[in-house]
Amino acid sequence: MKDIVYLERLEQAEALFKPQRVAVLRQLSEPRSCTEVGKELGQTAQHVYYHVRKLLEAGLVSQVSERRVRGINEGIYQATARSYWLLPSLVGTIGTRRVQDELSLGYLLNLVEDVQADLVRLDGTDGDLPTLGVSGEIRLAAGDRDAFLADLRTTLQDLFTRHGGATGDTFRLAVACYPKEDDRDD
């Protein structure tokens, strides 16, 4: 099971737009039969199989094994991922995105979409990836964003100089700063 599957086709996204189907998918975080999922959700195995078949067609579930129960073969299914992300281009940017500079929301949206695509590509690799993440909160007065960005650039440039040798694995560093909704001044 992957950590992330990028939904690249509209049919995949449509398969998730039914609450009952999402409930079935959640039950399939571990390998289960339609009978087992049905018992958990209070539904018939046939009703669950209808949803499983749609999820199979969309590539969101796979059959992982089969067992013989009372003379019939029963499929065992599992979700293909722990998370499903919609590819931003499924809908696409409506109109043109305003990207004035590194301080604009459009720049941050482009950065987040790039990071999201990178993470999905990395999830397909084997083994434990040497990633790291840092998160924190700061408080900036409205007029201090430019000065903060200049300080951040200087600090990062110092890190790049000290750690950015010509050999070793290449890592992408993305830094995002955005207001928290609950702290914004109205």
UniProtKB/TrEMBL annotation:
Q: What is this protein called?
A: DNA-binding transcriptional ArsR family regulator
The UniProt entry, under CDD domains, shows: HTH_ARSR
Q: Which domain of life is it from?
A: Bacteria
| Gene3D superfamilies (UniProt xref) | Winged helix-like DNA-binding domain superfamily/Winged helix DNA-binding domain (1.10.10.10)
Looking up SUPFAM superfamilies in the UniProt record yields: Winged helix' DNA-binding domain (SSF46785)
Give the source species.
Answer: Microlunatus parietis
Keyword annotations from UniProtKB, A to Z: DNA-binding
Q: For this protein, what is any one GO molecular function term?
A: DNA binding
